[in-house]
Amino acid sequence: MDFLAVLAEAAAAPKAPNLWGALGCALAYSGALFATVDSFADLLLVDGDGPDGRPSPALRLKIGSKLAAAAITVVAAGLVLALDSNWFALVALSIVFIVLAGIAAIVLVRHRAHLATSRASLAGEFDATPSG
Predict the structure, then answer these.
(1) At CA 17, angle to CA 28 and CA 88, rounded to 5?
(2) What's CA 39's distance to the chain center, in Å?
(3) How many distinct structural domains can be found in the chain?
(4) Which residue range is the domain that position 31 belongs to?
(5) Pick from 46, 45, 39: which is nearest to 62 by CA?
(6) Does residue 5 belong to any structural domain of this protein?
(7) Single pTM value for the model
(8) Which residue from 19, 101, 102, 130 has the highest number of Cβ atoms inside 10 Å of its Cβ?
């Protein structure tokens, strides 16, 4: 009977979180963050390579695929952490990912706004010059 009691206690004891799984998920989150920031950098560095000043379809496909892969990776890593009941790692990695991706998005939006105002002022300078 002692063997069955020990077995029952071991089954009922809370298990420790899988630290190797958390490390793998942290690597997945960092790869997804890199893909997200890289896609934002593509938008920043390529300034409207299409004929109408917008990104070309190839560039939009490249950026979209990076963002989709990052989203799939974050969701899969989050599910692994949730299934492992490693809530601390899930919350910590998600907060870090959201904050850093948010900072990158703010930089992207500010750059786009600055670019639009500089283009507008440049267009205003050309319109104000007397022709003759």
Answers:
(1) 65
(2) 9
(3) 1
(4) 18-123
(5) 39
(6) no
(7) 0.72
(8) 101
